Amino acid sequence: MDINAAAPVVTRDEIFIHAPIETIWGIQTDVASWPSWQPDVDSAQADGPLTVGSVFRWQTAGLDITSTVEEVDAPHRIAWGGPAQGIVAVHVWTLDEREGSVLVSTAESWEGDAVSAQAGPLQAALDQSLRNWLENLKRTAENRP
User: Among positive and negative, which fits the CA dihedral 34, 70, 51, 74?
Assistant: First the structure.
């Protein structure tokens, strides 16, 4: 699974994290703990570990989101997506070990009538949201014992 590169809103970003890949993967895929390290996430819940077909629910920026896991290649890649209030999102995360650190890359696409109507502001919001997510993931992983 990949994002829709032709969607009205597409964001790609990455960051190097100096922590074991398993630590980063564990933090990123423990949905229920997202609010503890990700201030933009108001609540999150998953019924067990994330596997293909798993559904998890979370709230951020006033959106109630239900995401379905579409692909898992632990601890290197996970993709999920789903609709939320007129936005159809696809989100892909990849973790690539590189000489003592991990390059964490994220790509997300948003489409739908609501997105087309406000592509500019939504693009800026998604860009900032993913940058914040990566920086919070880095801080959390690098401070784990």
Answer: negative
Q: Please confirm whether the linkage preceding 75 is cis (ω < 30° from 0).
A: yes
DSSP per residue, 4-27: -TTSSEEEEEEEEE-S-HHHHHHH
What are 72's two structure tokens? 């898992």
Each of the 145 residues of the chain gets a pLDDT tens digit; together they read 899 999 999 999 999 999 999 999 999 999 999 999 999 999 999 988 999 999 999 999 888 999 999 999 999 999 999 988 889 999 999 999 999 899 999 999 999 999 999 999 999 999 999 999 999 999 999 999 8
| Of 136, 93, 118, 123, the residue nearest 10 (C-alpha) | 123
In the chain, how many domains are there? 1
Amino acid sitting at position 24: I
Angle, helix 21-29 to helix 119-142, in steps of 10 degrees: 130
* 14 located within any domain: yes
Closest CA to 67 of 15, 35, 29: 29
Q: What range does the domain containing 15 cover?
A: 9-142
Statement: the pTM of the whole predicted model exceeds 0.85: yes
CATH number of 105's domain: 3.30.530.20
